[in-house]
Design goal:
Elements lengths: L3 H21 L2 H4 L2 H28 L1 H5 L4 H30 L6 H32 L3
Helix pairs in contact: 1-3, 1-6, 3-5, 5-6
């Protein structure tokens, strides 16, 4: 699996974008229409990048793990795949809301956005702290 350094780099990029968005997604910042427009644009880009990232992991990491002889790696792969389905649904539902919000973030959308960014960070941290070290330790990566 030669792509692991690329996935690690993408994680850092995604976390950087989340950090920027967290500074923009506040009631005070979003009161400014230009900031709200920028936040909307960045959120839409982040959702697209995250969906692409998950799809790349589906193609680049999990198939090899699901056929691996080590049952521990298979279990880890199934756990991440199982967690991915809800994340994909959350991103799909969130995308629909973003498409209809017209750059206006009410309190509910702000809260939901913050929760989604938290889930995204949690997922990336879990891959970084659990999945990737297991891949490296097993010699797969």
């Amino acid at each position: 699996m030669q792509a692991l350094p690329i996935f690690k780099q993408r994680h850092e990029e995604l976390l950087g974008e989340v950090t920027l968005l967290r500074s923009l997604i506040t009631k005070e910042q979003l009161a400014n229409k230009a900031t709200a427009s920028l936040a909307h644009q960045k959120l839409c880009q982040l959702v697209v990048k995250m969906k692409a990232h998950l799809a790349e992991e589906d193609r680049g990491i999990y198939p090899e793990l699901l056929t691996h002889s080590d049952p521990k790696l298979k279990t880890i792969a199934w756990n991440f795949i199982g967690g991915q389905q809800p994340l994909n649904k959350i991103f799909n539902d969130f995308t629909k809301k973003l498409n209809h919000c017209q750059y206006e973030f009410n309190d509910e959308l702000i809260k939901e956005t913050q929760e989604i960014m938290h889930l995204l960070c949690k997922r990336i941290e879990s891959e970084r702290d659990v999945l990737f070290p297991q891949l490296e330790a097993s010699g797969v990566a």
